[in-house]
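Retro notes (design track)

What went well: tokenization of the new backbones is finally stable.
What didn't: we kept losing track of which sequence belonged to which structure.
Fix going forward: every design gets posted as structure first, then sequence, in one message. First example under the new rule, 176 residues:
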């Protein structure tokens, strides 16, 4: 939001730029990226802008329902797409590479990434509310708890990279 306001671009365009920058950092730290990563950078922002334009994202009137939707969406959404192994989103790829390199939990690494991103966004004029704080600070503990309950360690999971995806598509084409 801060980047969108500062540069007069849409929120989706800002999300795409930030996603590309973060995945570049993760890539140079040794993390690969896949089809899901590219979709997160180039497809999701288009849907973000469409949903915002159409005003289809509901505003929760009660704090408790908004917080529940935030936490459930973050925990289960991340687990579901990371489990597909088609490539992590940019912040998740950075979370995983930081966990591998520092031998810290993915939750701690994700919280660190989120706090830095929130601080930069706030410095650029983005809104910081209670949901932002809960998400940035609480996401790490939520991820650790959720992943422990689901017996899922994203730092140990191999995310399919683009050459592997292309090879799999070629193999399926020759079988068909």
């Amino acid at each position: 939001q801060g980047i969108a306001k500062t540069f007069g671009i849409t929120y989706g365009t800002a999300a795409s730029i930030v996603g590309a920058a973060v995945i570049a950092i993760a890539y140079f730290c040794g993390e690969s990226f896949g089809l899901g990563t590219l979709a997160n950078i180039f497809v999701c922002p288009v849907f973000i802008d469409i949903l915002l334009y159409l005003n289809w994202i509901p505003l929760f009137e009660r704090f408790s329902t908004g917080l529940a939707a935030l936490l459930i969406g973050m925990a289960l959404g991340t687990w579901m797409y990371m489990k597909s192994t088609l490539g992590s989103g940019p912040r998740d790829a950075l979370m995983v590479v930081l966990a591998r390199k520092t031998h810290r939990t993915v939750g701690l690494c994700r919280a660190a990434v989120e706090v830095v991103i929130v601080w930069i966004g706030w410095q650029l004029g983005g809104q910081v509310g209670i949901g932002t704080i809960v998400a940035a600070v609480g996401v790490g503990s939520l991820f650790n708890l959720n992943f422990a309950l689901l017996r899922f360690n994203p730092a140990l999971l191999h995310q399919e990279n683009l050459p592997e995806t292309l090879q799999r598509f070629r193999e399926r084409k020759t079988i068909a």
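Added context from the reviewer: The mean pLDDT is 83.
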